[in-house]
Amino acid sequence: MAASETAKDSALRHAFGNVLSFFILVLIGVLAFSIRLFSVIKYESVIHEFDPYFNYRVTQFLTKNGIYDFWNWFDDRTWYPLGRVIGGTVYPGLTLTAGTLWWILNSLNIPLSVETVCVFTAPIFSSIAAWATYLLTKEVKGTGAGLTAAALLAMVPSYISRSVAGSYDNEAVAIFALIFTFYLYIKTLNTGSLFYATLNSIAYFYMVCSWGGYTFIINLIPMHVLLCIVTGRYSSRLYIAYAPLVVLGTLLASLVPVVGFNAVLTSEHFASFLVFIIIHVVALAYHIKGMLSPSMFKVAVTLVVSVGLVICCAVVAVLVALVASSPTKGWSGRSLSLLDPTYASKYIPIIASVSEHQPPTWPSYFMDINVLAFLVPAGIIACFLPLSDASSFVVLYIVTSVYFSGVMVRLMLVLAPAACIMSGIALSEAFAVFTRSIKFQLPSLSGDSQVDAGNSDSGSAATTQTEAVKADKIEESAKERPSRKNKKKEKETVEKPSVKSRIEKRLLVLPLESSVIALLLLVLLGAFYVVHCVWAAAEAYSAPSIVLTSHSHDGLHVFDDFREAYAWLSHNTEVDDKVASWWDYGYQTTAMANRTVIVDNNTWNNTHIATVGTAMSSPEKAAWEIFDSLDVKYVLVVFGGLVGYPSDDINKFLWMVRIGGGVFPHIKEPDYLRDGQYRIDSQATPTMLNCLMYKLSYYRFVETDGKAFDRVRQTEIGKKHFKLTHFEEVFTTHHWMVRIYKLKPPKNRIRGKTKKSKS
């Protein structure tokens, strides 16, 4: 009877725990969704940043014309006169996901616009990513750690920065795909199920469709497999987890048009194929070992290793031959900039010019992951107690993500889930130790007899020391890797872990006062984290870049100049007119003004961008000739000198010079610098004062305050009074943030020649 009652109580507690976990996960999902709505509440439901406008435009085309037209869409409004094949150059995961959501909602008679669905796609998938984090961490360290990690991910500022309402970028769904792929890999590793291995390949396929960061997955998992093989942790479960992923995942990845045969031809994927060969050699060795005698096994191993080395050498030789012809040895520019942080600044300035490709500063770590940076080391230590295949994977994940985040600030987004997982494990283990210590000591305070675990103070020191020695011996025996030769030893030590766990519970009892104080400190730490995350979501990452605000003594000021300029272009120019600007504003111009642009944020053609940079860096007449050859009718520049907007074209101008000079050698950066300094005041060089960008930015600027004082550069400009000969100003926004100029028509050369001949 007692045993049955105990079993019922245990089942009841288990059921209650599952129900409680479910409701906690629902609350975490609500939290992850609602904390990302500050941008909609404070501003309006609008698409943010630059790239999301292209994704929104593509989603509009998909929902209007269907998927077949989407795959075959040639966009003639971008990269004039080249154009762009959208279906073959875009990662379709985000677009297909949002389009599917819109179709489902409209099928249910919920008439939401495409823009509304795009705005709220990122918050929805943030909730799903939090649940995926719970599943992943649960496979590593249990339910408590999973719930804690999910709650941390729901609020982490680094993830919020890329998933607020309106941030309709690839990372909105890619982070979920990343975490879910890792979860299915760990699940397959723990269970050895071919079903989960197949799901893992499908999840990897969705990741490939969503983001170019899928190469992180196809390199991290082979690194973990190789680590397990080297450390003697090979098993059939490891083979099942990895082999189907490489075969089926690569086949599926090659179906994505933007990837295609790059899935087998580029260097980013070669590590997975090499480890694929190695794991088959190891599997063959283990298979032969069970069939042969020890003497024959040595001969067979020698043969297998020899054949394996020959195959590996042949594969390496083929790979070397394939990539030797490429100047980058088969690596993409972004991958090389990760492996060599100085590569982009030396050879590809277009990559180095992007702000999110710069290395982060130390304060950015505290801003983006806050207190998690201090909890990660504790989580790594907890993963080694004890070390398993799953815990070794998350340790490898955090180590690699820390390195990549230190190279490129954009990859702080990849670090955030790993930091949340490690911090969740650390907090869960810490709470377990402290609450267990309080639980064991509370009965002694009330005068009752001690519970089963007892307190270490009641026993003698000699007994405790003896138990500690026994625990060490048990731990040493448990650390030995079981093999087929010592199955008897494995059977003998089946009952020892329970003894070990009881002894560890005795030894890990802390003083009551210390446990209570530590719990209070952890709660305060969590409260500080929540306050920081809410502040980051409400203030730092909620403002859309298309609408700017500033606070002053007379209240809130809203700067809506970008939409004002795009609306003017849409209503006052011809449909076929071409607009030239720096590539940052290409997506917005195409999506909001519906006008053809010369370059945009895709940055696939460095020569075309260098042509625009050369025009901006040239004198007015030479720039007019370049733009006229491209059939440009309007030139758009962004200027922040009047209101103090720092991300204007004058601050980006040196990158235009560097990119243009990389293709056209007559553009030299030293010509625009005075003693190595970039200046726009009276000490600026004549080349700088006469270039097109300077003139278009500061034309009539002296009329604003009489001094022409630039609030961004904090100085008066050098050349205040000048006239334009080949361009005319047609529109300047209210705060002078966007200025639009029109190319003057060429002079009538025939009339000029006639007059000259008559004279």
UniProtKB/TrEMBL annotation:
Residue ranges crossing the lipid bilayer per the database entry: 20-41, 85-105, 117-136, 142-160, 172-197, 203-227, 239-264, 270-288, 300-324, 365-385, 392-409, 415-434, 507-531
Annotated GO molecular function terms are: dolichyl-diphosphooligosaccharide-protein glycotransferase activity; metal ion binding
* Protein name as annotated: dolichyl-diphosphooligosaccharide--protein glycotransferase
Where in or outside the cell it occurs: the entry states: Endoplasmic reticulum membrane
- Membrane topology, as annotated: Multi-pass membrane protein
User: Start and end of every Oligosaccharyl transferase STT3 N-terminal domain?
Assistant: 19-422
Keyword list (alphabetical) reads: Endoplasmic reticulum, Glycoprotein, Glycosyltransferase, Magnesium, Manganese, Membrane, Metal-binding, Transferase, Transmembrane, Transmembrane helix
Give the UniProt entry's GO cellular component terms.
Answer: endoplasmic reticulum membrane
Catalytically driven reaction(s): a di-trans,poly-cis-dolichyl diphosphooligosaccharide + L-asparaginyl-[protein] = N(4)-(oligosaccharide-(1->4)-N-acetyl-beta-D-glucosaminyl-(1->4)-N-acetyl-beta-D-glucosaminyl)-L-asparaginyl-[protein] + a di-trans,poly-cis-dolichyl diphosphate + H(+)
The record's annotation in InterPro entries points to: Oligo_trans_STT3 (IPR003674), STT3-PglB_core (IPR048999), STT3_N (IPR048307)
Keyword Metal-binding attached: yes
Give the start-end ranges of region Disordered. Answer: 446-496
What are the Basic and acidic residues biased-composition ranges? 469-496
> Taxonomic classification, please?
Eukaryota, Viridiplantae, Streptophyta, Embryophyta, Tracheophyta
Q: Write down the top EC class of this protein.
A: transferase
Q: Which family does it belong to?
A: Belongs to the STT3 family.
